Amino acid sequence: MMNEEFEMTEDESIQFEKDYERFSIIQDENNFKTEWCLYEIENVNEDSELSADIITNGLKRDKDFKVELPNKKLTWLELWKYADELYELIGDSEHMFVESFEVKKINGKRELQVFFGS
First vs last Cα of the chain: how many Å apart? Predict the structure, then answer.
């Protein structure tokens, strides 16, 4: 029996399929290993309003892995690119879904934490 919390209407299911296909094309065009799960972002080429010095995994166990970021506001596509680079450094093939981002100030640096899911 399916949990009611996860049931979608027919319209929601159709929209999910469209979004999945749209982001799959972008994933293929950019040779990304990760999958984008932020479907509320309609245009990945728009500015995200996020900037930081480095990107790290939001999970404490992978804090040794980081990718330097340019000193500018990044587009959603650029965020995906840097998250994908980080994913490849970490080498965790199970958690390949880019689910969220959060900026924190740690030791005087702005750290963009990406959260990967499975």
Answer: 22
Spatial separation of the C-alpha atoms in residues 8 and 62, rounded to whole Å:
34
Q: Which burial class, exposed, middle or buried, applies to 93 when counting CB atoms under 10 A from its CB (0-12, 13-18, 19+)?
A: exposed
CA 27 to chain centre: 12
Contact 80, 32 (CB under 8 A): yes
What's the CA gap between 60 and 43, in Å, rounded? Answer: 30
Q: What is the pTM of this model?
A: 0.86
State how far the Cα of 50 lies from the Cα of 41, in Å rounded to an integer.
14
C-alpha 113/C-alpha 67 separation (Å) is: 11
Handedness of CA 22, 94, 30, 61 (dihedral sign): positive
The sign of the torsion formed by the CA atoms of 96, 36, 55, 114 equals negative
Residue 88 amino acid letter: E
What tens digit of pLDDT does each residue of 1-38 get?
344 566 889 988 888 899 899 999 999 999 999 999 99
